[in-house]
Every structure is written in structure tokens, then in C-alpha cells.
Automatic annotation (TrEMBL):
Taxonomic lineage: Bacteria, Pseudomonadati, Pseudomonadota, Alphaproteobacteria, Rhodospirillales
GO cellular component terms listed in the entry, alphabetical order: cytoplasm
Keywords: Iron
PROSITE patterns linked: FRATAXIN_2 (PS50810)
InterPro entries xref list: Frataxin/CyaY, Frataxin/CyaY_sf
Domain of life: Bacteria
Name of protein: Protein implicated in iron transport
Pfam families per the UniProt record, alphabetical: Frataxin_Cyay
GO MF terms, alphabetically ordered: 2 iron, 2 sulfur cluster binding; ferric iron binding; ferrous iron binding; ferroxidase activity; iron chaperone activity
Organism, as annotated: Thalassospira profundimaris
Family assignment from sequence similarity: Belongs to the frataxin family.
Length: 110
């Protein structure tokens, strides 16, 4: 069932802002972390980018990763997490895994 619009926006914005803060605090001195107009861009020294944003029409968070490609996440109210539409992984798990591959740093995003 789709989330109510106001709840979706609040939840998605909080999630993306939290991810931005955690990554910036952990490795922001080694990569460029930019949150602007609700779009989180994480740029590596190589020029590769992770882009995370909300997609209001589908009530999803979308991520583009240089490691795993494009993925979409629905909010699972039972687990209170953003779960992949293609598998059992969560947004936080996939992003942490992909960042570790590219930066060598494990970051706890949950």
C-alpha cells in the first residue's frame, strides 16, 4: 500500500538527510557529500557518483550507484526500512556495501 503523501515526504527527507549526515561525518573529508533540494550526491575522487533522491509519484527512494547500478526502494512499515523492489536488501545495506567497495570504509548507516 502506498504511503500517504505528507508522511512519505517527511520520511524520505529524514532518511536522505540522515544518510547525508552520517556519510559526511564518517568520510566527508575524503569525498564530496552534497545535499541540495532533496537530492543527495556523493562524489568520489574518481568522479564517480552515488545519487539518492525521492520519487514522489511512486513513493520510493531511488539510488544510482557506480557499483550496483540503479535501484528503487519502497518503505516497509513492518521493518521500518526502505526495502529494494528487486530483493531483500535495504537502502542502507546496499549503500553501505557499495560505499565500502569504492572507498574501503565500512559505514554503519542504520
Amino acid at each position: 500500500m502506498a504511503l500517504e503523501e505528507t508522511f512519505f515526504h517527511r520520511l524520505a527527507d529524514e532518511t536522505i538527510e540522515n544518510i547525508s549526515d552520517v556519510i559526511d561525518d564518517a568520510i566527508g573529508d575524503r569525498i564530496d557529500v552534497d545535499l541540495e533540494a532533496g537530492i543527495l550526491t556523493i562524489e568520489l575522487d574518481s568522479g564517480e557518483q552515488f545519487i539518492i533522491n525521492k520519487h514522489a509519484l511512486n513513493r520510493q527512494i531511488w539510488m544510482s550507484s557506480p557499483v550496483s547500478g540503479a535501484s528503487h526502494y519502497d518503505y516497509d512499515e513492518d521493518t521500518e526500512s526502505w526495502r529494494s523492489t528487486r530483493g531483500a536488501t535495504t537502502l542502507h545495506e546496499q549503500l553501505a556495501t557499495d560505499l565500502a567497495v569504492k572507498t574501503g570504509h565500512k559505514i554503519a548507516l542504520d
